[in-house]
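From the methods appendix. Each design record in this collection lists the tokenized structure first, followed by the designed amino acid sequence. Records were kept in a plain field format so they could be parsed without special tools. The example shown here is representative of the layout used throughout.

RECORD:
FOLD TOKENS (134 positions):
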């Protein structure tokens, strides 16, 4: 999943400081990414505002990224289910291209499906906002 998100910014280790990926498996599948580029935190549709290199951020390419990410989440769910293991409800992945360092955090609690108002997008927005505070 990190590879998909990193390819979206053309594997640009010169400018991309951090690649953040979130995947949720609760009421279906939710995949999104955001980035720290040249020291600035940005969502995927805004990468060209902070990067010298300009990326193809067309709707077609963005939707393809989401589609491939969701397909990967389906495969992850199947792997866990086939092995009779608890299926994670949230995957937070962080990749640092300059050092090659990778961090992952899986959770198994409900993140939004037990709420009448909270959505998968809200979970993503909370994580994005928290990264800006670091």
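DESIGN:
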């Amino acid at each position: 999943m990190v590879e998909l998100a990193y390819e979206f910014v053309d594997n640009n280790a010169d400018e991309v400081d951090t690649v953040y990926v979130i995947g949720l498996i609760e009421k279906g599948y939710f995949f999104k990414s955001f980035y720290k580029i040249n020291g600035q935190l940005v969502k995927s549709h805004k990468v060209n505002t902070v990067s010298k290199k300009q990326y193809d951020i067309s709707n077609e390419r963005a939707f393809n990224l989401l589609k491939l990410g969701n397909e990967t989440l389906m495969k992850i769910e199947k792997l866990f289910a086939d092995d009779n293991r608890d299926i994670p409800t949230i995957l937070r992945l962080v990749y640092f291209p300059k050092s090659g360092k990778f961090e992952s955090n899986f959770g198994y609690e409900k993140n939004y499906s037990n709420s009448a108002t909270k959505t998968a997008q809200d979970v993503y927005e909370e994580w994005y906002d928290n990264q800006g505070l670091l």
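APPENDIX NOTE: Residues 40 and 105 are 23 Å apart (CA to CA).
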